[in-house]
Amino acid sequence: MVDLRALPPAPPDADEAPARESTSATMALARAAAAGDERATQQLLESLTTRVERVVHVIMGIGHADADDVTQLALIAFTQALPAFRGECEPTHYASRIAVRTALNARRRSRAMRARYDDLADADIADTMTTHDSALAERRKRLVRDLLGVLPPEQAEALALRIALGWSLEEIAAASATPLNTIRSRLRLAKEALRRKVESDPVLREKVEEVK
């Protein structure tokens, strides 16, 4: 089984620990945008676009052909979800969660199309057969991204936020307005499902052995 704990989280933003004033300003923009202020909405989108792009790249992989389109879809989905924003979590977490969900859905569609047209010709794994550490790490991440696609959406989202973005359980619970114990349960079920999937699939088992 791929050791999910060994995968590094997404590189932190340069402003990962913003000043309290900056956080308050973002929250004020989000509340105004949620109330229908178009100027606040535009300013909020401008401030969050880079974060959303990074989240999409973490889930889909840097250089993915659809990453730019998925980023735009995530920003649109975030804008559409703003009226429901009540300030229970940071706007950046709200946007990041929507970006994760959008990117996971895009990967599922892409995976289904690939299965339909090339019968699982998995170029993601086969194209890097080097033993170089950086290449091995990238292959691990690619394999985990593919495995996320077989999970139920809520479990995949929780696991992606945990292992790809490095969120704490408390942050995931707050962003999804879900009890902490439910998040724990989703993560446990997700890991068990992935373990069963790998153990029951000889091809996946071989890939896992390659990236250990």
List keywords for this structure.
mainly alpha, about 210 residues, Arc Repressor Mutant, subunit A, 10 helices, 2 domains, Rna Polymerase Sigma Factor, Chain: A, single chain
Structural notes for this entry:
- This protein has 212 residues and is mainly alpha-helical.
- Helix content is 71%, strand content 0%.
- It has ten helices and no strands.
- It is globular.
- It starts with 19 loop residues before the first helix and ends with a helix.
Task: Please state the CA-atom Rg, rounded to the nearest Å.
Answer: 18 Å
Give the CATH topology of the largest domain: Rna Polymerase Sigma Factor, Chain: A
pLDDT < 50 stretches: 4-8, 14-19, 113-132
As a percent range, the share of strand residues is under 5%
CATH C-level class of the largest domain is Mainly Alpha
The secondary structure category is mainly alpha
Q: In percent, how helical is the residue content?
A: over 70%
**Order of SSEs, N→C?**
HHHHHHHHHH
**Molecular shape:** globular
The pLDDT mean sits at: 78
Number of domains: 2
Distance linking N and C termini? 8 Å
Q: What is the H level of CATH, i.e. the homologous superfamily of the largest domain?
A: RNA polymerase sigma factor, region 2, helix turn helix motif
How many beta-strand runs?
Answer: 0
> Sheet bearing the most strands, described?
none
Instruction: Please give the count of helices.
Output: 10
Which architecture name of the largest domain does CATH use?
Orthogonal Bundle
